[in-house]
Amino acid sequence: MNGAESLIRSLIASGVDTCFTNPGTSEMHFVAALDHVPGMRSVLALFEGVATGAADGYYRMTGKPACTLLHLGPGLANGLANLHNAKKAGSGIVNIVGEHAETHLALDAPLKSDIQGLARPMSHWVHSATSAAEVGRDGAAAVTAARTAPGQIATLILPSDTAWSEGGPVATAEPPASRATVPSEAVAGAARALSGPRTLLLLGGQALTAANLDRAGRIAAKTGCSLLSEWSNARLERGAGRVSIGRIPYPIDQALQVLEPFDRIVLVGARPPIGFFAYPGKPARLTRPDAEIIDLADWAADLDAVLDGLEQEAGAAGTTPLGRAEAAELPVHTGALTPETIGAALGATIPEHAIVIDEAVTTGRSFFPVTAGAPPHSWINNRGGSIGYSMPVAIGCALACPDRKVLALSGDGSAMYTPQALWTMAREGLDVTVLIFANRSYQILRGELTNVGVQNPGPKALDMLSLDRPAIDWVGLAKSLGLEAYRVDEAGALTKAIETGLAVDGPVLIEVVM
Ligand SMILES: Cc1ncc(C[n+]2csc(CCOP(=O)(O)OP(=O)(O)O)c2C)c(N)n1
């Protein structure tokens, strides 16, 4: 058994059974070992950002790390933007990054680079394997790190001689440590605060499961506090019958207005609200300067226990939760495609147990309220702000949950960062319906020009935000990568196309021409 085989066996023994790969020469022993060791599902991605994004989506739906296989420094570098998003979402991932054999490193070969230096900013744990005999243990240690709450990025650098030389023992990761508890006095104090006027309970991370939202709804019913989540959530459970929770808006003025009424904000799994960006003359913190922030529990804490404790302390157990969404029967709209008619089409078609990955950017700003009464579903946001995440994340979600329908909603600008994801969807026959909102521009940035104080932008500035020269043929692109694809420019046709996409088992792309 060589080192590569002992590594794969150790990953499998530690519960990692899915690998998103884009290999090169230095990873050939790992690739060969995939056939010698049963139990590792390997999925080829044609760009490393697709592999890392897929591993992110996989973790969000399973709570279990997948691994990636990346080719030296440049391969890792191509995957970094979606690793950044995964890190901000609290997703656990094990990256295996190939490296030259030790004897070759001294020769400054073309692909030699500072892999540790590249890995560190987007990883919580970085380790270079030094011997084939130890590589199984290194793999298990990487899984232990990746499983640290809420989920961490672990990067194991694998010199090719540690893969091809005689391997050592197969190792198993330590069981995940239990999540940190919060002192009961702090919970009791926060429960008292929630009973005061003008108080917000701001939820994030594991506080957004269906059961925890029910607890929050009971606390709100009993204490009169308001509920909100952050703008971007790694995964939020919602839909008919679930406690419907609003998100702090992205646009800074709206966010300030939403938070202005609150004297006290209790944080459970959420951070103190800040703007996505700084804007001249606008505050960075979104809460009123005199508002009291009670940071009860961060996202790594045992939030089930925290919300249970709050519920008990508030005397809310047995109360009917406030704000459960009612099932909505939405009329099918016809006519022009606008954010409102597109939102209505989604509200009318999102199926039960769907996973919606939202990278709809400007088009999608108003999707949330109109889809609140759709059948129960999961909603996934980008917490890192690096665009090009939704189609890769959809791959991981679809592999993690083969019985659920996946809807990836993307602006055309965002989708062009990782279009290779479509090929992997087709190759693996994944049940994903992709909606591309083809407004042929970086629309959000037109608004941001104004927000940062640029008056009357000139033609060069506007040209940097336009995608219409040439217009991208999404249907042609998707078909060339093996997908069924449709173009729609009217709301009734969009509803029908979404229904068609959802009825098909494999991937379908819909170009929504705005
Ligand atoms: C990796 C990365 N590069 C650039 C940006 C800056 N950026 C934010 S949104 C955006 C354009 C989004 O365009 P699109 O997806 O078409 O959405 P629209 O606003 O048009 O709805 C860009 C370039 C970013 N967030 N991440």
Describe this structure in words.
This protein has 514 residues and is an alpha/beta fold. A seven-stranded mixed β-sheet has the order 9-14-13-15-16-18-17, with helices on both faces. The model has no long low-confidence stretch (mean pLDDT 97). The structure holds thiamine diphosphate. The site of thiamine diphosphate (TPP) has 18 residues, from helix 16 and helix 18.
Q: Tags for this entry?
A:
7-stranded mixed beta sheet; alpha/beta; globular; 18 strands; 37% helix; binds thiamine diphosphate; 514 residues
Helix content: 25-40%
Q: What is the number of helical segments per DSSP (H or I, 4+ residues)?
A: 21
Beta-strand residue percentage? 15-25%
Residue stretches low in confidence (pLDDT < 50, at least 5 long) are: none
Q: Which distinct ligands sit in these coordinates? A: thiamine diphosphate
The 3D shape can be described as globular
* Gyration radius over CA: 24 Å
Task: State the end-to-end distance.
Answer: 56 Å
The number of strands is 18
Q: How would a crystallographer describe the biggest sheet?
A: 7 strands, mixed
Structural class category: alpha/beta
Overall pLDDT:
97
Strand adjacency order, main sheet: 9-14-13-15-16-18-17
